[in-house]
Design a protein that fits this description.
Elements: E1 2-7, E2 10-15, E3 18-20, E4 26-27, H1 30-36, E5 42-43, E6 52-53, H2 60-74, H3 84-96, H4 101-105, E7 114-117, E8 133-136, H5 138-148
Antiparallel strand pairs: 1-2, 2-3, 3-4, 5-6, 7-8
């Protein structure tokens, strides 16, 4: 599938994983194209920070600070009870059900990357009960929490 992408005064044709200029010069990967076509720089989302970032919300310094603040507020995933046993249970669940269960019910095929607790741990759900776990993709996991009104 090919489509044209205008860059300044030249037009590139994207074909599969190759980019070809109309006059025949071949660019072999998208990394080269990304150097030519980049998102505009935006200010860091941290209040008062003058740094400019591309393709992310915070500069490196404030991304670390944001994660640190979040961990202090919520506790790290280990402090919230996700131990090495959870890592094993998660791997078992994803190996048994490698596709997103919610997408499958809609007739889509999407790889699962997360394991969701049907009944949250804060509401008495079990950490390692396979019946309480659901394999899901990031999009469905976010939708589930949005529907429940959770902050995730």
């Amino acid at each position: 599938m090919a489509f044209a992408l205008g860059i300044r005064y030249s037009v590139f044709l994207l074909i599969g994983s190759r980019v070809q200029r109309p006059w025949g010069l071949l660019i072999k990967n998208y990394a080269e194209v990304n150097e030519l076509v980049q998102r505009p720089m935006k200010p860091c989302g941290w209040p008062g920070c003058p740094n400019l970032v591309r393709g992310q919300r915070y500069c490196e310094e404030h991304a670390k600070q944001k994660q640190k603040n979040q961990d202090e507020r919520r506790g790290s995933f280990r402090q919230r009870g996700y131990t090495s046993n959870w890592d094993k249970v998660r791997k078992i669940k994803l190996s048994r059900d490698p596709l997103c269960e919610r997408c499958e019910s809609k007739g889509k095929v999407t790889a699962a990357t997360l394991v969701h607790h049907r009944q949250s741990l804060s509401k008495g759900g079990s950490l390692a009960d396979m019946d309480n776990l659901m394999s899901c993709c990031i999009k469905c996991h976010d939708e589930i929490h949005r529907e429940q009104g959770d902050k995730w």
